[in-house]
Design brief:
This protein is mainly β. The chain is built from no helices and 13 strands. It is globular. The C terminus is likely disordered.
Length: about 180
């Protein structure tokens, strides 16, 4: 629209494609513990492949009050229990061969805190469901890096806890916008 048609200044509109369509495989991995002790921790080690990743979405599900933490460049002395990352496209290999997930690793250095602690209450309001809560975080992680996701039970009793991660392993771009 030009100035003088009821507007004091010229308005410029620019069309731009701001997304990139990517070809890849969608995976889900779940670290789960049906009885994390009071003040106990459920941890997930995410070892990213040495190539770019699409965004990862972390979801935390728990039965009472909890704290969420995320660390980058983690050092472990033992990986923990492998967690299968299952492919959503059923015509291709079922498990991820590139992004590796491990439940409850032995951590010697937590590295750099990206989210040192987000406290979430338990209960039955807001995002809370069935006496618990859930929270979702969206990240684009560095390639070839170890990340630690922690969910700490702040309740006074054992609680069921899960960390769910959804991610795409890229096969290559189909097209890219300007």
């Amino acid at each position: 629209m030009a100035a003088g048609k009821g507007f004091p200044n010229t308005i410029v509109s620019i069309d731009a494609v701001t997304r990139r369509i990517e070809q890849g495989l969608l995976f889900t991995g779940i670290a789960n513990d049906p009885a994390v002790a009071a003040a106990g921790v459920l941890s997930l080690l995410v070892r990213t492949p040495p190539k770019p990743l699409s965004p990862m979405i972390f979801e935390y599900i728990f039965g009472g009050a909890a704290t969420i933490s995320l660390f980058e460049d983690v050092t472990v002395s033992a990986d923990g229990t492998p967690v299968d990352a299952v492919n959503h496209r059923r015509l291709t290999p079922i498990l991820s061969a590139e992004t590796l997930l491990f439940q409850n690793p032995t951590v010697t250095d937590t590295g750099t805190p990206l989210i040192p602690a987000i406290s979430l209450p338990g209960g039955s309001s807001g995002k809370n469901t069935a006496g618990g809560s859930d929270e979702t975080l969206f990240w684009v992680l560095r390639e070839g890096t170890d990340y630690l996701v922690q969910l700490t039970n702040n309740s006074t009793q054992d609680e069921s806890m899960s960390i769910v991660v959804n991610f795409v392993e890229l096969l290559g771009p189909l097209s890219s916008g300007t």
